[in-house]
Design goal:
This protein is mainly alpha-helical. It has a single domain (about 5-125), classed as Homeodomain-like (Arc Repressor Mutant, subunit A, Orthogonal Bundle). Helix content is about 70%, strand content about 0%. The chain has helices at about 5-30, 40-45, 50-55, 60-80, 85-110, 115-125. α1 packs across α2 and α1 packs across α4. The protein is globular, with a radius of gyration of 18 Å. The N and C termini lie far apart (about 50 Å).
């Protein structure tokens, strides 16, 4: 039986942590915006220390770029560039419905969204974040 090297399992745990940080960062940045979200908030909700977060991402800007890369990859995965434009528009509408359903579920589970948060999220659901100018 092949022996699992400890380094491989540590690397897998680190990648899981990194993905958790990215998911939390995307949610908080979408909800609160760039200026109203701190690395400490992201680290706390992701269950890591601020130093642990900085191990994976050197700065808030680098974390934002990683979040945007994940979002862009998701957009590309859902885009059929050779397909019919009308069906693509319908697919976007379906994604918005899934988003609204998720937001309503959050409200029912006690994680209430303010009207401003819901409107902001709906207005930016296709591209919730904008890359800062270089």
């Amino acid at each position: 039986m092949p022996e699992t090297r400890p380094y491989d399992s540590l690397r897998a745990k680190g990648e899981d942590r990194k993905q958790r940080i990215l998911a939390v960062a995307q949610r908080l940045l979408t909800r609160n915006g760039w200026r109203n979200t701190t690395l400490a908030q992201i680290a706390g909700e992701a269950g890591v220390s601020p130093a642990g977060l900085l191990h994976h991402f050197e700065s808030k800007e680098q974390l934002l770029h990683a979040v945007l890369d994940v979002r862009d990859a998701d957009d590309d995965a859902h885009a059929d560039r050779a397909g019919d434009l009308i069906s693509e528009i319908a697919a976007v509408a379906d994604r918005v419905i899934v988003f609204v359903d998720g937001a309503l579920t959050q409200q029912l589970e006690g994680e209430t969204l303010t009207e401003h948060e819901l409107v902001t999220a709906m207005n930016t659901s296709a591209k919730p974040l904008v890359r800062p100018a270089a």
